[in-house]
Amino acid sequence: MSESRRVGIVLVSHSAQVAAAVVELARGLAGGGADVPVAPAGGTEGGGLGTSAELISAAAASVDRGAGIAVLTDLGSAVLTVKALLAEGDELPDATRLVDAPFVEGAVAAVVTAATGADLDAVEAAAAEAYSYRKV
Q1: Which ranges in the chain belong to alpha helices (H)?
Q2: Closest Cα partner for 40 from 15, 66, 3?
Q3: Measured in Å, how far apart are the chain's first and last C-alpha atoms?
Q4: So what's the pLDDT on residue 31?
């Protein structure tokens, strides 16, 4: 799959700093992940903690390359905001999916998988599989 048709990834956190740091971590651990269109959507427009439909929509538009978009979230109201945007039907690019995955591990798995040129189903599956990563 060409770079122009890669799956885009949006990382939605209640904190702009957390979202940006997870983007940096995922790209760094993915090696070739710099080619993956991935964007943070953290905090509110005013720089506070929370989520913003406008920031999420803008991030999704910025990573849309026509191969779908995987959206990963950190906490409950981020999930609700993304679900509301998906329900609107015209706020996010076509083939945008809310992915049920752990935020950090799922983001790394999603970026690594997208870097291989995988399709949206494979990116979603890799991110969701991160729930099974054991630490002890």
Answers
A1: 16-30, 53-63, 76-88, 103-115, 120-129
A2: 15
A3: 36
A4: 83
Q: Tell me which residue of 110, 58, 51 sits closest to 84, measured CA to CA.
A: 51
pTM of the model: 0.94
Q: Are 65 and 119 in contact (CB under 8 A)?
A: no
Q: Which residue matches tokens 């979202």?
A: 19
Please tell me the predicted confidence (pLDDT) of residue 33: 62
Query: Can you say how many angstroms the Cα of residue 116 is from the centroid of all Cα atoms in its chain?
Result: 16
Cα separation, 109 vs 76, in Å, equals: 21
Can you give the pLDDT at residue 101?
Answer: 97
- Give the strand pairing for 38-42 and 69-73: unpaired
C-alpha span between 76 and 18 (Å, rounded): 16
